[in-house]
Structure formats: C-alpha cells, structure tokens
Design a protein that fits this description.
- The structure holds two protein chains of two kinds.
- By secondary structure, chain A is an alpha+beta fold.
- Chain A has 16 helices and 15 strands.
- In chain A, the strands form five sheets. Chain A has a six-stranded antiparallel beta sheet.
- The longest helix of chain A is centred in the N-terminal third of the chain and has 19 residues.
- Chain B is mainly alpha-helical.
- Chain B is about 70% helix and about 0% strand.
- The longest helix of chain B is centred in the middle third of the chain and has 22 residues.
- Classes of the chains: A alpha+beta, B mainly alpha.
- Chains A and B meet through helix 6, strand 15, helix 15 and helix 16 of A and helix 5, helix 9 and helix 10 of B.
C-alpha cells in the first residue's frame, strides 16, 4: 500500500487517472461542486472484471465542518435503506476522518434537466414526460413508505426533487438521486424542518416557510417538475426572495395560460400537486401517479419506457459506454496545494474501508444498496479558473471535463438555461443560539458579526462562495458523463 | 471613514485623484451591492458596476450632502430602471439562471430564520418603500442623506421611513413563518433590521485599492 500525502486546493482533490481509492480506480474527474467532487472510476475484480462507478468525494476543506460531514454521511445512511429500481444505488461508503467518499451506481444517460434543455426547441412527447414523472413518483412513494425493522415509518422526505436529480438512462430507465438533503424522522410522523435546504423554485411552501414538512413536500416538488416539463417554464420564476414568496402564496400562472391547448385534466392534476396547503395536495406520490396514469390512458399517450428510449435515441443517438481505460503512466496523486492525506493503494493490495458506515451502524452489503445523489455543483472550469495555474494544470485530468446542465447553472450567465426561472440552491440556517444570540435584545452587531465569522471560515478554508460565483466559463456537457450524480455544494 | 475624511477624498477625487476615487468606491462597494442584491440578486453585480461607472462619469455634479447620497441616488435610479425593464420584458427572467446572491451558497452562506422572514416581508413592500428601507438599514444612510438621494426634505423621509417600517412589521406579522422567528423579529425589530446590512454587504470590491 502506498500512502501519499497530497497537497491540493481545497476544492480539488487532484486525483489523477489511475489513482486508487480502496478498490476503485479513478478514470477521470467528472465535475465538482461546493460539497464534493465527482469522479468516474472503475471497480476491478478477478478475471478482468471491470465495472464503472461514480465516486463522490467530499471536499477536504469541509471535513472539519461537522454539518457538512453529517449531510454527506446522512445521504449514505438514508440510501442504505433504499433499494428500488427508480433510485440510484449507493454501492459503498469509504474513507474515514481524513476522507469521505461514496461509490455510486453509474447510470448511462442524462439528467432530466439536460433533456429539458434540448426540449426547449423540440418539446418532449407528453407520454415521455409522464413516464418520467410516474417513475419518480414510484421512487418517492417507495421511500416515503419505508419502515424500519420494527415496522415503524421512517418518514423519509427527499426534500430536493428537481430535474437535476432525476437521471434518465438511454434505455428509458428513470432513477432519482441525491438524498443529500433528505432527512429521516424516525419514529415520528413528520419531519421537523430545522433548516432550509433545496433548490429555489422547487421547494414546497412549507419548506420555504421553514415549517415542519412531510412526504407531501416531495409531491409538491414533483408537481413543479411536471409543470416545468409540460410547459417548458417553471411555475415560480423570479429572483431570490420573490420566488419564496410566490411559492408560499401559491402564486403561479395556470399551465393553460402559458401553454395554449394544455389538457384540462392535466391542469387539474398540476393544480392539486401544487396546492399551497399540503392538506389540499395529493396525499401521496402514488395518488398523483394514479391520476397521471388515468389521464395518459384516457388521452391515449404512449408512456412505455421503450417509447422514451426511442425518443432519447432520436435526440441523443446511442452513445457508447464510457471509456474506462486509464493512462498507466500517470502517478496516482500529485502534490498540488493544501496538505491533506489521501490513501492511494497499490492495486495488488486493495483493502476496503467502511468506517463511516460502521460507525453509523449501517451495514453496507455489496448486493443490495442504497441510492443517493448530489445536489449543486459548480463546474470544473469554475474551480480551476480560480486556482493557481500550476495547481489547476495538475488537478485536471486529461480530456474535457464534463458536468451536468445543473452544474453549469452555477457557473455564470453563460450557462445554459433550460427554462425561465431559477433553481438556485438555498441554505438558510435555523435559529441557532450558539451562532447568533437571540434578540433579547440582541446587540446590533451580533448577528452580523456571527455571520461574518461563519462566512469567513468557509471562505478562508476554500472559498465556497468565490469558487462558484466568479467564473463565467460555460460548462461543457458530455452526455456520456451526465448520468453521474453531481457533488453537492 | 469619517464625514471629514469623505469630504476630503471627494475634493481630491474631483481634483482628479484616482486614488481618492478608488477609496471612496471601495468604502461603498459592499453596501451598494447589498442594496441591489436585496431586490435584484441576479443582476446585483452588474448594477453595482454600472452605478460606479455612472458615479465616475458624474463626479463633477456631486451636490448631495455626502458621497453616500450621491452614490445611492444613482443606485436607486439604476434599480428602478432595472425593475421596470424586467416587468415589461418577460425574457428578463432568463437572467435569473445565474446564482442568486442573497440566497445561494455563492452569496450569503447562511442566514437566520429571522433574516429570511425580514427579507420576505421586505419583498412585499412597494418598490420605493423597499428602496427607502434598503438605504436606511442596508446602506446605513442617515435621513438627510436619503433625502438628498431622493430629492426629498428630511422630514418627508422620516415620515416615509416610519410608514415603511410599520408596513414591514405588519408583513412580518402576517407572513406564514415559524412563530418563534416572528416573535423574535417583532420583539426587537430594529436590531434585526439593522443586522440585515452587514449580512448582505460584506463583499470585497473586485477592483484594487490603488
């Protein structure tokens, strides 16, 4: 085993093609965000066994932030409980205190957001859209209804259902990913929201208002996806806080007003899914799916996965599987910047590490597993543009780095925009006496001072804000890579 | 920066000192950006740059009581023009594909529930009331400076600010929000409102100090 102390910029691991992380060998970097980096890797076994996987590595500068580590590992814990054909599987959890990574199922296709980008000029057949929403609904209904070994509801809520987290395989399979902001409210009927995390414009009114949420919050978000995919614009467009207010008020244009000829029955379904009051909404994702199925049947729509696959082939061709070959001459790791330790192993002596999973009491089995995904990302270009030139040159693997359309959205004005509106991720901290004393009365400077402290820490340790804000380099999208989940910011 | 320092710098700037101009702009950069970010987060950077360009071009015409009044007088016009254009041109919504600085991780990393509630309440006020509140709490201008920026008597500004504050409180009371956040804001409204400024103006200018 070879242990390498690598110096790298805080937002770039600098894992070179050929580097080993336990039994996974890096092929190339796919993208990067505020929370993690994503690599295409290969799992090697006996007799020439090779399987593509996606590795999601948490940024080193976040490892000392318990909140981020918890969010990262939460995804693994939740995913460990999920096994469903419409949910991206987490295959493994690796690392320890110095590193954290997840190995994910590789899905050969695109994310739904990328599909929607292309659909601006060439709308998807309604049957295909409904197929996608039906499958996401099935994934959600499964997750929402999961119970523990004692039969008690786990009350899982995804909390970040959006096109970027819906993966569309070229064969027509649909997989929901990114349970990174999901919460499990074990032994309770409702998930108490203590913070606001998700994507602006997809969060439910109760999320936006920081109220307790339950599974119906995901139903709302799926309703937003349905609206967007059938009208090619988001229901709650606008800027910043205005979007939150619009969502809470239920202020959106009925789909028939923005899309003439919109089916009345479908409009009713959308309206019920987007009801501002959860009690007026569909009681479950399955109820929404049932109404959608009935509508599709009555309208004679072709919702078969094969029809979706044919449509994708018409639009994107039939891309081959990703090239998993690596340049054998490349050293596993290079010294780039800040000192952080990554274990690079000789392929002859792989050794699995499941420390986080064990610590959390999660049993990771190789066969049946968990799905999780990543939220926001910024582009590779966005990061490297701020890194020292030498570091950037060493960090990036050969070839164009590809990121999803969602990734590109945070890179600047030049990023592709699928529809009107925005899907900015938001992160609002709940009241936290440890951070900001409650006004009793509060000295005027305290909220500001504490905010600065938090921000300063983040910036100083890696420039979360700066790394996603300043670049205007449009991200490149490679359909072959786009299926991989993206790092969360 | 004291008013005297500012006055001296203004004189030097008018006399042609780029260094003095830079110092003045640096002093106001974060507050101007925050002023825009509060209402137009996707265009805040651009509007800020435009504002400072206009300030440079119009520095000979400074008549206001302070540089702040001069700068925010221009900023107000920029914001109103932007909002008006956005309302008329729906394609403006495409702009919002960029990160939104107030809420996105690339802007303010985290806010308190109380701040979110205040910002939501502020968003519901009429444009001019928002601008007034922004100038007072975010930009930190005095009533006289606001009056200069808006071309209004100080007494009128005081009256309007008082009305805007009451409207803001009323919105906080009626908004759908966590009860504890609402109670917290209402119990010490001024402190929470004042804390908005540092929250969204803590940004370094992209230009150098020389």
């Amino acid at each position: 085993m070879e242990s390498v102390s690598a110096r790298r910029p805080a937002t770039a691991r600098g894992l070179q093609p050929g580097a080993w992380l336990d039994q996974y060998r890096v092929v190339r970097r796919i993208g990067s965000g505020g929370m993690a980096e994503l690599y295409l890797a290969r799992l090697e076994g006996r007799g020439g066994f090779v399987k593509p996987v996606a590795l999601k590595l948490m940024h080193t500068h976040l490892l000392d932030d318990p909140a981020f580590v918890e969010m990262f590992l939460r995804e693994a814990r939740i995913a460990a409980r999920l096994s469903h054909p419409n949910i991206v599987q987490v295959l493994d959890v690796g690392g320890g205190q110095a590193d954290n990574y997840l190995a994910l199922e590789y899905v050969h296709g695109l994310d739904f957001r990328q599909v929607l980008v292309g659909a601006r000029e060439d709308p998807l057949p309604l049957g295909c859209v409904i197929r996608i929403v039906l499958d996401v609904g099935a994934a959600l209904h499964y997750a929402h209804g999961l119970r523990d070994v004692d039969g008690r509801p786990l009350s899982i809520v995804h909390r970040d259902v959006s096109p970027g987290n819906i993966l569309v395989a070229y064969d027509g399979a649909i997989k929901l990913t990114d349970f990174g902001v999901a919460r499990v409210a074990e032994h309770t009927q409702a998930t108490v929201t203590t913070s606001l995390k998700g994507k602006l414009g997809y969060m439910s009114p109760e999320q936006c208002a920081q109220e307790p949420i339950d599974h119906r919050s995901d139903v709302f978000s799926l309703g937003v996806v349905l609206y967007e995919a059938t009208t090619m614009r988001r229901p709650f467009a606008g800027e910043g806080i205005a979007v939150l207010n619009a969502v809470i008020d239920g202020n959106y244009p009925p789909p028939e007003t923005v899309s003439p000829g919109y089916p009345a029955q479908l409009s009713s379904i959308v309206a019920r899914a987007l009801a501002a009051e959860a009690s007026q909404r569909y009681g479950s994702a399955a109820e929404l799916a049932a109404d959608l199925e009935a509508f599709a049947t009555a309208a004679g729509l072709d919702t078969r996965p094969a029809a979706l696959a044919a449509e994708l082939a018409r639009r994107f061709g039939s891309p081959g599987l990703p090239d998993l070959s690596v340049d054998e001459s490349v050293q596993p790791l290079r010294i780039v910047d800040e000192a952080t330790t990554v274990l690079a192993r000789d392929p002859a002596t792989p050794k699995s590490r499941l420390l986080p999973a064990l610590a959390l009491g999660v049993v990771i089995v190789v066969t049946g597993l968990v799905g999780w995904g990543l939220g926001r990302s910024s582009s590779v270009e966005a990061e490297t543009s701020e890194a020292p030139a030498a570091a950037a040159a060493q960090v990036d693997p050969p070839g164009p780095a590809a990121v999803s359309a969602e990734d590109a959205d945070e890179t600047g004005a030049d990023a592709p925009t699928p529809v009107e509106g925005d899907a900015t991720h938001v992160e609002i901290a709940p009241p936290d006496p440890a951070v900001v004393p409650p006004p009793d009365p509060i000295p005027a400077a305290k909220p500001a001072a504490s905010t600065k402290r938090r921000r300063g820490r983040t910036q100083g340790s890696g420039g979360r804000r700066g790394s996603t804000k300043t670049s205007t380099t449009p991200a490149k999208v490679d359909p072959r890579d786009a299926m991989l989940p993206r790092p969360s910011p | 920066m004291t008013p005297e320092d500012e006055s001296n710098l203004l004189d030097a700037w008018r006399a042609g000192s780029h260094e003095a101009g830079n110092q003045l702009m640096r002093a106001y950069y974060g507050r101007v950006l925050g002023f825009f970010a509060m209402r137009a987060p996707t265009a805040a950077d651009d509007l800020t740059q435009r504002t400072f360009l206009a300030c440079v071009e119009g520095r000979e015409r400074v008549r206001e009581s302070s540089v702040g009044a001069f700068v925010f007088g221009i900023a107000r016009k920029m914001l109103l023009k932007y909002l008006d254009a956005k309302r008329r041109d729906q394609s403006f919504a495409i702009e919002s594909a960029r990160p939104q600085s107030i809420l996105s991780p690339s802007g303010v990393v985290a806010q308190r529930s109380e701040h979110l509630l205040l910002l939501r309440a502020l968003e519901r006020l009429p444009d001019e009331a928002q601008i007034l509140v922004g100038m007072h709490y975010v930009a930190g201008l005095r009533s006289r400076e606001i009056g200069d920026a808006l071309g209004l008597p100080t007494s009128t500004v005081t009256t309007r600010l008082s009305r805007a504050r009451e409207a803001l409180r009323a919105e906080v009371q009626s908004l759908r929000a966590p009860p504890q956040a609402r109670a917290s804001v209402l119990a010490d409204f001024e402190t929470w409102a004042a804390s908005l400024g540092p929250l969204i103006t803590d940004r370094e200018p992209p230009f150098g100090g020389g």
